[in-house]
Amino acid sequence: VTQAQWTRFMGANPSRFQGPKRPVEQVSWSEVMEFLGRLNGRQDGFHYRLPTEAEWEYAARAGSEDDFAGNLDAMAWYRNNAGGATHEVGLLQPNAFGLFDMHGNVWEWCADWYSASAYATAGGVNPEGPTTGTERVVRGGSWHYARELQRSAFRFKLPPGSRLGSVGFRIAREPDESRIVR
Known about the structure:
Layout: H1 3-10, H2 29-40, E1 46-49, H3 53-61, H4 72-75, E2 107-113, H5 118-122, E3 136-139, E4 155-158, E5 167-168, E6 172-175
Parallel strand pairs: 2-5
Antiparallel strand pairs: 1-6, 2-3, 3-4
């Protein structure tokens, strides 16, 4: 979600690195929920939400089993090439699914509570995380961190009230089942 998109629904832009096409950052998980509530309030036939951790990783990998879904230097803003700041979204190469900035630029809040053993205990396709916790999952790495923290499988956690210049979010959109006429 860009700063322009955030500002349209929330009014003020909290971001450290200003620019309408840069990712919004310094937003807490709770503030993201408020944004999603306002976005869903438009009743445009879609439901908007944060992706689950499993959905996020599937989208980031884009069919790849490698550490990165392509050439990291060509597709991610991170410590080696970011110059100490975020950048406009969509400037580097997308992954095989056509998604930009899945690695680097900003960490992205996910819907799930964090559990160190989430993948070991949940199993199956699209595993669900725990129903409670004290920290939320963030994925994707950021402009501030080294190469190894940009891996598709790397998991990080933050208290939901955290507001950092390296954390933003992306959203998932699905048809609003309650608005479908059958």
